[in-house]
Amino acid sequence: MDQQTEKIVQLYREGAKTKDIVARLGLNPSTIYRALRKGGITPSRRKIVDEERVQRLFASGHRPAEIAEMMGLARSTVYAVLSRQRARTRGGSG
Predict the structure, then answer these.
(1) Which helix (H) or strand (E) segment is 49 a member of?
(2) pTM for this predicted structure
(3) d(CA 66, CA 34)
(4) How far apart are CA 54 and CA 44, in angstroms?
(5) What are the tens digits of pLDDT across the range 50-69?
(6) How far is 4 from 1, CA to CA, in rounded Å?
(7) Axis-axis angle for helices 64-71, 51-59 (nearest 10)
(8) Which DSSP category does 41 fall into?
(9) Does an H or E element contain 33, and which?
């Protein structure tokens, strides 16, 4: 990851909202969203999803419904994150 991407991801993980990151760094919102995706955080229309956190919670034994509740997400979003991760660990095959 380049330094700009690392800074954006760091600010987000520290709790900064995307609009605050835009204002602080003077970057276009699309740059912020692209950097977050590079950093493993999937932006959606309504909410940015920290996929690594979803994975950690699932790996520690939480059910998808619990993860959804804890993170304020739809269960379908949690299942989509978990499904994408399984595809990546299988080398992209179904």
Answers:
(1) strand 48-50
(2) 0.48
(3) 28
(4) 15
(5) 889 999 999 999 999 999 99
(6) 8
(7) 140
(8) E
(9) helix 29-38
